[in-house]
């Protein structure tokens, strides 16, 4: 199985909010775009919250995120995987998130897009989040927000939020992008126009 490599960060150079996924899907890798599968709810959610057309050209969508003080990246920088499912990821290596966050004191919030992003973030970047009673088998609970004091910058307090995955695969609690919108909107601290 070949080793796959993800993307560089996109969006704001001085973000207030860092949105972290797990690893790009096959379709995203083919297109060279974050959340490149047309059924993924990510751009629908962000377009609703920030007031842009989710079908706009990719560069325009990323520009809207940058203008809102958001950056995109993935927790996993490289891995082996057949298909696009997070459960099939093997041999994952993290992106240098501690360095990235450490060099950007503007980051106030880290939004984790789904369970695999949350579990990998706790495992690779913020093991302290898993030491208290808030620990869950797969990381943080959906909608849970915790203050994090990174070991590499203990004077900082960063809000870490686990969001429902933007994946189009329905779950019992989140069947559509509409169901996910309240949690995503709270992360941005804004009012959605859905």
Q: How is this fold's topology laid out?
A:
Layout: E1 3-5, E2 10-11, E3 17-21, H1 26-31, H2 42-50, H3 58-67, E4 70-74, E5 76-80, E6 90-94, H4 97-102, E7 109-113, H5 115-124, E8 145-148, E9 158-163, H6 177-188
Helix pairs in contact: 2-6
Description:
The structure is a single chain. The chain has 194 residues and is α/β, with parallel strands linked by helices. It has one domain (3-188): Uracil-DNA glycosylase-like domain (Uracil-DNA Glycosylase, subunit E), CATH 3.40.470. 27% of the residues lie in helices and 21% in strands. The chain has six helices and nine strands; from the N terminus they run βββαααβββαβαββα. The protein has helices spanning 26-31, 42-50, 58-67, 97-102, 115-124, 177-188, and strands spanning 3-5, 10-11, 17-21, 70-74, 76-80, 90-94, 109-113, 145-148, 158-163. A six-stranded mixed beta sheet has the order 2-4-3-7-9-8. It has a three-stranded antiparallel beta sheet with strand order 1-5-6. α2 packs across α6 (177-188). The protein is globular. Residues 131-135 and 190-194 have low confidence and may be disordered.
Quick summary of this structure?
With 194 residues, the chain is α/β, with parallel strands linked by helices. 27% of the residues lie in helices and 21% in strands. Helix 2 packs across helix 6.
């Amino acid at each position: 199985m070949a080793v796959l490599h993800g993307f560089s960060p996109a969006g704001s150079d001085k973000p207030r909010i860092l949105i972290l996924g797990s690893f790009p899907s096959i379709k995203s890798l083919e297109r060279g775009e974050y959340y490149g599968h047309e059924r993924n709810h990510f751009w629908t959610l962000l377009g609703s919250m920030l007031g842009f057309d989710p079908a706009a050209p990719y560069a325009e969508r990323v520009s809207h995120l940058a203008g809102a003080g958001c950056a995109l990246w993935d927790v996993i920088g490289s891995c082996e995987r057949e298909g696009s499912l997070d459960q099939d990821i093997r041999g994952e290596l993290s992106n240098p998130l501690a360095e990235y966050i450490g060099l950007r004191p503007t980051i106030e919030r880290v939004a984790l897009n789904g369970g695999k992003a949350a579990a990998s973030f706790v495992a690779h970047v913020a093991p302290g989040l898993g030491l208290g009673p808030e620990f869950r088998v797969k990381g943080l609970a959906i909608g849970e927000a915790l203050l994090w004091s990174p070991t590499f910058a203990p004077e900082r307090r960063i809000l870490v939020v686990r969001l429902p995955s933007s994946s189009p695969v329905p779950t019992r609690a989140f069947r559509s992008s509409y169901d996910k919108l309240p949690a995503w909107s709270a992360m941005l601290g804004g009012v959605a126009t859905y």
